[in-house]
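USER:
Try writing one entry.

ASSISTANT:
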Amino acid sequence: PVNCLLLLPVFFFQMTKSVTNPEELGGLASQMTNDYGHLALQGRMAAATAEPEEIGFQIRTRVQELGHGCIFLVQKAGALQICPTDSYTKRELIECARAVTEKVSLVLSALQAGNKGTQACITAASAVSGIIADLDTTIMFATAGTLNAENNESFADHR
């Protein structure tokens, strides 16, 4: 989902830039619609696998809200194509693009919240790997006899 999310703001920027060139809006709206379709599919899978269930609900809700924002943006782009000189429609298009950009950031934050458990497991696994490596190193030095014993016992006695 993140890949699609990264593309959407580019299209919003291009849309707001295309206010001066409305004939480009149709192609941009079509591309944004395709990208949102991919995001919706991936978002559905991310929501289904998210733990806890609240995070999945949040992902699903925010992706839907983004979809509604995209619909309004495409509608405003169409309205501007019909009447390219209407300054009110131009402002509305820019405002819709801003709102959609905010919704993209909300989707990203929901996806990151759903990823916290995975990241915690990766961090814990990394810490455990570090401890195991330290123990292996200590065992290697102890076996070689390079560690100083406090009494006359050998490492083999304690291993």
User: Anything to note?
Assistant: The mean pLDDT is 75.
